């Protein structure tokens, strides 16, 4: 096994919040709103609220665990330490597999907004570029994410203003007239795909300064900011397009500004969407590579992936391996086809995180939050479309089989 050194603590609270926002904003606003509207109809805001409640439970549990175990790996480490080796492994397996699919979805989002005719080629190029950025060090990644998030927030604010001042928003489109409980739960599960960005803060725990103080502050702050942004944008787009048009939109925000009579602003929205997806992809690759590092340290993955670069202080072999895998998936995958699968895997990941947080202490309030998180994650996971549940269960079973075979050997 090659020598393993510890990562350097270079990230402060602001950097951690920005990395979390970079993940959440890119995934949700430009990708998940349309399929969520298809599931919930005009009840989309209710689905968003349900997803926000479950995400809050997960954020609270993750913050407590990350302060106790400030190491790379996130719930992989928490499950291993609190529940046992198998549950930690299952969490790590779910995260790596699910988030690899998420990385491919974000890369393809860049391709479809920038050059739809060559979306897969653009996606592969984006993965290669951001892998190279991550390879050079965590501070460069945080700086680039800060720039991207600033631009995207400005674009989203402009979209809301354009819609609000267009005079074409119809309040009747916001009336809860159709939908079902199952549809709301499906929408919440799909939107949860977007909220999972705060996990990046926990998985970078070994690179955060004063983690016992920084992580519990950064996770709820990033989640709260993202939830406010999601609510404002979702209500604005729903008011201008209606649930039916939003459900079938391939570029919801671009369609919204066009419907508001501001077609000239559409190119700006497309650039903002591409930047948002790039920011999300950047943070996703960071998180997957750090979980890969932690699993390689415990020999669940090839131990050569546990090496840390002596100059840049990053798990360079893990980052290159993740980049190659994501590029391969992005070359052939469908951008919408992976959202449900990724959501299922991430919900399993957070169910294990909440179960781990349950064991931390006797506080009734904290245990109630953890219990609600476990139940909520389980309900949202089984409520997802059948194909997503089936593929998710199959992948989890494969991971468990690999673990069992390794134990027997």
Helices and strands in order:
Elements: H1 13-40, H2 44-68, H3 75-82, H4 85-114, H5 119-135, H6 138-164, H7 181-195, H8 199-203, H9 211-248, H10 252-259, H11 266-297, H12 316-330, H13 337-358, H14 364-383, H15 386-408
Helix pairs in contact: 1-6, 1-7, 1-9, 1-11, 2-7, 2-9, 2-13, 2-14, 3-4, 3-13, 4-5, 4-11, 4-12, 4-13, 4-15, 5-11, 5-12, 6-9, 6-11, 7-13, 7-14, 9-10, 10-11, 11-12, 13-14, 13-15
Percentage of helical residues?
over 70%
User: What is the distance, rounded to the nearest whole angstrom, between the alpha carbons of the first and last residues?
Assistant: 19 Å
Rg calculated over all Cα atoms: 20 Å
Structural class: mainly alpha
**What is the beta-strand fraction?**
under 5%
Mean pLDDT: 85
Q: What is the chain-wise order of helices and strands?
A: HHHHHHHHHHHHHHH
Count of discrete alpha- or pi-helical segments spanning 4 or more residues: 15
- The counted number of beta strands is 0
Globular, elongated, flat, extended or rod-shaped: what is the shape? globular
Most strands sheet = none
Spans of at least 5 consecutive residues whose pLDDT stays below 50 are 1-5
């Amino acid at each position: 096994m090659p020598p393993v050194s510890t990562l350097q603590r270079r990230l402060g609270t602001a950097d951690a919040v920005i990395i979390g926002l970079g993940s959440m904003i890119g995934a949700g606003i430009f990708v998940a709103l349309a399929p969520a509207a298809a599931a919930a109809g005009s009840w989309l805001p209710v689905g968003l609220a349900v997803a926000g409640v479950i995400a809050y439970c997960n954020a609270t549990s993750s913050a407590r665990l990350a302060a106790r175990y400030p190491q790379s790996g996130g719930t992989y480490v928490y499950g291993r330490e609190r529940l046992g080796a198998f549950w930690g492994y299952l969490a790590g397996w779910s995260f790596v597999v699910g988030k690899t699919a998420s990385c491919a979805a974000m890369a393809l989002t860049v391709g479809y907004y920038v050059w739809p005719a060559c979306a897969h080629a653009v996606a592969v190029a984006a993965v290669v570029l951001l892998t190279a950025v991550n390879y050079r060090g965590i501070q460069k990644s945080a700086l680039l994410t800060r720039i991207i998030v600033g631009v995207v927030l400005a674009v989203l604010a402009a979209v809301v203003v354009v819609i609000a001042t267009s005079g074409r928003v119809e309040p009747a489109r916001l009336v809860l007239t159709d939908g079902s409980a199952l549809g709301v739960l499906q929408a919440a599960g799909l939107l949860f795909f977007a909220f999972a960005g705060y996990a990046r803060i926990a998985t970078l725990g070994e690179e955060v300064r004063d983690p016992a103080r920084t992580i519990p502050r950064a996770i709820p702050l990033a989640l709260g900011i993202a939830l406010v942004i999601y609510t404002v944008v979702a209500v604005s787009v729903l008011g201008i397009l209606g649930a039916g048009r939003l459900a079938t939109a391939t570029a919801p925000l671009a369609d919204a500004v066009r419907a508001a009579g501001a077609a000239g602003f559409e190119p700006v929205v497309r650039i903002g969407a591409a930047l948002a997806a790039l920011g999300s992809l950047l943070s996703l690759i960071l998180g997957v590579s750090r979980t890969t590092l932690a699993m390689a340290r415990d020999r669940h993955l090839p131990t050569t992936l546990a090496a840390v670069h002596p100059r840049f202080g990053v798990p360079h072999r893990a980052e290159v391996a993740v980049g190659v895998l994501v590029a391969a998936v992005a070359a052939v995958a469908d951008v919408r086809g992976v959202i449900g699968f990724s959501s299922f895997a991430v919900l399993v990941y957070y169910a294990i995180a909440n179960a781990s947080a349950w064991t931390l202490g006797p506080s009734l309030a904290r245990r109630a939050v953890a219990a609600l998180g476990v139940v909520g994650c389980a309900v949202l996971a089984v409520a997802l479309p059948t194909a997503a549940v089936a593929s998710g269960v199959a992948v989890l079973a494969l991971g468990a089989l690999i673990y069992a075979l390794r134990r027997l050997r």
